[in-house]
Amino acid sequence: MSSIKAPFPPVRRVVTGHTSAGKSTVIADTVELARPWGNETVHRVHDLHYTEGSPAIIDTEIAKGKWVDEIKMHPELVSGMGSTFRCWDVPPGDVSPAHRTVTLDYAIVFKGTVILELEEGERVTLNEGDTVVQRGTMHTWRNETTEWAKVYFVMLGAQPIEIEGKKLEEELHHVE
């Protein structure tokens, strides 16, 4: 399945910052190619930005006179208490692993149709322009169409949900 190629162009990422005089400037203008997600070769993601904490430290790159163009990513799905900005190219017939993150996620379906399926089987069909506010629930993403889909995510670190004394921690279950 590693030969699957999305019909979408790479994602262009423009990052702004400041000059040493405090004036606005573009510090990076790059094309971000998709990479495999985890051990899967069919799941293609564009990691666009990552922060380690909140509030985010946004002045270090230019203040130190450098910009590291590689996004710092951890093996976890998300950034912990920071933020993750990601784009996912979803192939026809694809199903993500069931997962829960300890995050507040904002998702926008940019192209195509995907289904958000929760752990008890509740399903919501999302079309282009639809949005989701995901609040730490166990879920999968499904593309049950014959067309590719593209979804953008902003994931913000959150406090774990606690129900009857039990914290709902991050989980990832690969599909068989």
Short description:
Pfam families: Cupin_2. This protein is mainly β and 176 residues long.
Question: Which features characterize this protein?
Answer:
6-stranded antiparallel beta sheet; 176 residues; mainly beta
Strand order, largest beta sheet: 3-4-5-12-7-10
Alpha carbon gap, first and last residue? 15 Å
Task: Specify the CATH class.
Answer: Mainly Beta
The averaged pLDDT comes out at: 82
What structural class do you assign from the helix and strand content? mainly beta
For this structure, the CATH topology is Jelly Rolls
CATH superfamily: Jelly Rolls
Task: Determine the strand fraction and express it as a percent band.
Answer: over 45%
Helix content: under 10%
Shape descriptor: flat
What does this structure look like?
The chain is flat and about 55 Å long. Strands 3-4-5-12-7-10 form a 6-stranded antiparallel sheet, with no helix packed on it. It has a single domain (11-173), classed as Jelly Rolls (Sandwich), CATH 2.60.120. The protein is built from 1 helix and 15 strands; from the N terminus they run ββββαβββββββββββ. It is mainly beta and 176 residues long.
